[in-house]
Amino acid sequence: MALTFLSSLFGKKKKEEAATPVEEPIEVEELEETVENREENEQINQLMERINEIENDLPRIKISIDTIKKQIQELRDDIDRLDKTIKDVMMLYEVISQEINPFKEQMGQENPLSNEIQELRKELENLKMELAQVKNDIKVLAGYGVDIDSIIYEVLAEV
């Protein structure tokens, strides 16, 4: 595209030169002009070759840029996933470190989440003890020959 434009510009000069008949003997100035024209043509040809090389390289460069953009997006996604994983691990670490930490009592006062966990643990222990007592009571009642099924049905009916 660019080659045809430049060659058309210089092609007109060649046609004009060819149209003028050479009647006078060749002078030094004319020889210098001819040499200069040849050098210019060689430079133009070299430039045109380089432009064509660049035009051929552009699609490959565009594909490379698109590929790099995709890879960057994939890296961003990986970093986001790693960030979430690290946050999860840090939360788990905090819970575990509060379990093992000798300064647990001091930290418990500072962290409301650990206070709630401690309260839930106490309630769970209390429920376990009550359940064990109910089991023992049922065993004792069963030993005396009490109809446990009827008692269970009555309790469920009240609830």
UniProtKB/TrEMBL annotation:
It comes from the Archaea. It is found in: Archaeal flagellum. Keywords: Archaeal flagellum, Cell projection, Cilium, Coiled coil, Flagellum. One of its GO terms (cellular component) is archaeal-type flagellum. The keyword Cell wall biogenesis/degradation does not apply. It holds the Pfam family FlaC_arch. Residues 37-137 form a coiled coil. InterPro entries: FlaC_arc, Flagella_assembly_related. This is Flagella accessory protein C (FlaC). It comes from Thermococcus gammatolerans (strain DSM 15229 / JCM 11827 / EJ3).
